[in-house]
Amino acid sequence: MSNIDYIDDRILRVLAAEGRISNLALAERVGLSASACLRRVAALEKSGVIRGYRAVLSPEKTGIGFVAYVTVGLGVHTKESQLAFERVITRAPEVKECHNITGNVEYLLRIEVTDLAAYKEFHTEVLGTLPQVSAITSYVVMGSPKDDRA
Amino acid sequence: MSNIDYIDDRILRVLAAEGRISNLALAERVGLSASACLRRVAALEKSGVIRGYRAVLSPEKTGIGFVAYVTVGLGVHTKESQLAFERVITRAPEVKECHNITGNVEYLLRIEVTDLAAYKEFHTEVLGTLPQVSAITSYVVMGSPKDDRA
DNA sequence: GGTGAAACGTAGGCCGT
DNA sequence: ACGGCCTACGTTTCACC
């Protein structure tokens, strides 16, 4: 079992903020020797608490100039139509997130594209062509005062 | 200027997926020597294309059992009331993201808490006590068929 | 959980293109 | 301006206490 104690918690906090910190520096920060620290990190990775590591890229500098959240409602609510929709959405690179939500619509998507023109393209060519989709509402992101995941 | 060429692009793609890959392995993957690769990564970090690195943690295994998106509308639309709202929201640990969006409401928040009880607490004790807030709508996340940021 | 040592990776000077 | 080579130094990793 992987019960997270106080030190694990500190390790996770540090790694969540500085994913590429050296094990040595991490060990020092949490007050452990390098080997003990490494063993804990390895255990956290193996047990799935730590899923992986990623570089956080600047959206603007990597050509993302337009971000929007889109709610999507399906006309048919069968399992098959949901799976068909999710299959297409999962393949679409513009869709960074797809959440199944409660409320009057089924899905909330996060879309990241270069510009408004690219979004229009996505809207008509991808969303517009899906037979299951009956309602689309776009919320353009004008800014993100807080974004811990970015 | 930092113009991203084909190799930079490959580097970024690899680091976005495997943030803790060694420079040596990264160099091999993109077909560069270790020093050339390291220099490119350093340049990408310095120029801000790479903002940082983070460990991706499993929500369930770190005690996040309830995720919701919440739209918030402000009664007053002055700059001051927006800033006051953002100040409180930025400090709240439950709020992982706060986006300023177009549409009939001003904000879209992502909330992560342990359970429904904690969410109720946040809803009434934080959101409910902000004088600027005039409309709150919660969309509980039941699943995320795709989440590239997680 | 800590120690130590071998294996491995990083970082930077230097030179060629 | 950019890539490859070499090397001193730091870090990781693992058997052992």
Detail the topology: elements first, then pairings.
2 copies of one chain form a homodimer.
Chain A: H1 6-17, H2 23-30, H3 34-46, E1 50-57, E2 66-74, H4 79-91, E3 95-101, E4 107-113, H5 116-125, E5 133-147
Antiparallel strand pairs in A: 2-4, 2-5, 3-4
Chain B binds a DNA duplex (17 and 17 nucleotides) through helix 2 and helix 3.
Mean pLDDT of chain A: 96
Oligomer: homodimer
User: What structural category do the secondary elements of chain A indicate?
Assistant: alpha+beta
CATH class of the largest domain in chain A: Alpha Beta
CATH superfamily grouping of the largest domain in chain A? Lrp/AsnC effector binding domain/regulation of amino acid metabolism (RAM) domain
Number of helices of chain A: 5
In the sheet with the most strands of chain A, the strands line up as 3-4-2-5
Second-tier CATH architecture of the largest domain in chain A: 2-Layer Sandwich
Roughly how many Å apart are the termini of chain A? 31 Å
Number of domains of chain A: 2
Identify the biggest protein-protein contact and residues per side. A-B, 52 and 52 residues
What string, H for helix and E for strand, traces the elements of chain A in order? Answer: HHHEEHEEHE
Strand content of chain A: 25-35%
Principal-axis shape of chain A equals elongated
Number of strands of chain A: 5
Largest sheet composition of chain A: 4 strands, antiparallel
Helix fraction of chain A by DSSP (H/I, runs of at least 4) = 25-40%
CATH structural fold name of the largest domain in chain A: Alpha-Beta Plaits
Kindly provide the radius of gyration of chain A, computed on alpha-carbon positions and rounded to a whole number of angstroms.
Answer: 20 Å
Low-confidence stretches of chain A: none
